[in-house]
Amino acid sequence: xxxxxxxxxxLCGMTGALLIMLAVCGGLALGIxxxxxxxxxxxxxxxxxxxxKLTDAPVLDRISGSVTVSAGATLAVRVPAGVITRxxxxxxxxxxxxxxxxxxxxxxxxxxxxxxxxxxxxLGPGSSGADVAQVxxxxxxxxxxxxxxxxxxxxxxxxxxxxxxxxxRIVPRDLGGQPISAEEWRSVGVPLGxxxxxPELPVRVSGGPxxxxxxxxxxxxxxxxxxxxxxxxxxxxxxxxxxEPGVAVSFTLAGSVVSAxxxxxxxxxxxPGAQGxxxxxxxxxxxxxxxxxxxxxxxxxxxxxxxxxxxxxQSRAExxxxxxxxxxxxxxxxxxxxxxxxxxxxxxxxxxxxxxxPGICAEGYCAVSGADLRAGTEILxxxxxxxxxAPG
Length: 392
Known about the structure:
Blueprint: H1 2-40, E1 50-53, E2 60-70, E3 73-77, E4 84-86, E5 94-95, E6 101-105, E7 108-114, H2 130-141, H3 155-167, E8 195-198, E9 203-206, E10 222-226, E11 230-234, H4 237-240, E12 248-253, E13 256-265, E14 298-302, E15 314-323, E16 329-332, E17 337-338, E18 344-347, E19 353-355, E20 357-362, E21 365-369, E22 378-382
Parallel strand pairs: 7-8
Antiparallel strand pairs: 1-22, 2-11, 2-15, 3-10, 4-6, 5-9, 6-7, 9-10, 11-14, 12-13, 12-15, 13-14, 16-21, 17-18, 18-19, 20-21
């Protein structure tokens, strides 16, 4: 019994010793394998050098935006209820001549005449006022002699108006819009809606055509745009704070580059010359403080008077905030290094250290000047010079 126990103890001891030996050998083998693997792994390669060239291109600190052309002024065309019996002027068409027909309602042409006072009433014998004087001006410009007092609708005004209409193959009508015969010429008038007065010509039709054949007239048939166009620059909120009136703005319109000057920032929703629902020439109401307008901040642009533009045209724009001066060259900003004392320098491909005077930096480039700088010199941007290129 004692011998059996002793044999069991000896066997367990030998088994434990054997396990310890296996663990030690395994550890040694694993260590050797790791060492061999690490020895076989190549060291990371050094980053290859990247070079750039000094160029004489300017460094521009600029921001981008969009330019929209707005009408100088707009006038809503309103006519009495009826049916469009002849197609009106097409949207986008430009009317240059007084007396052109905008549209035809119930076979009554709507004529375009010059004048400041809107056609708000029917005019005829016995009428007087500034709107009558406008009709007399139309007739005189057409070559008719009017000897009635200014603003008085007398026989000479009636005779001139009757002849004006007949010579243009327009049926003369009385104040109520009823056709009249030759013997009734003294009763000729301008029915309400027969004329649309505009302050100046030419005008451009906007907001759709001035009447679609067969359609019922609407409260606002179309709009007429006139006057010098306005130009509005829109930028991002982040860029708006960097803009100051007077900076240069350039954009392309109809294939030509336009150079403009930044004006004042505009209140929300207001553009130069824009109109709301009020009378012609009135400004629209401004948005309440903080009200979203659907676009970024906007600025008026001062554009040369000879720039031809049509309301609705759009273009990308570039605002130049700063430009590097004469004597500066351009290089990637990452190439500029600082000595311990803070003096900036560049490293040429030859290994030479080039002292510089930095200028403006923008869009990843910096303007630099220095006595030893030459356009075309290769400059180290990143990485390290190879041994053959490093100075000895």
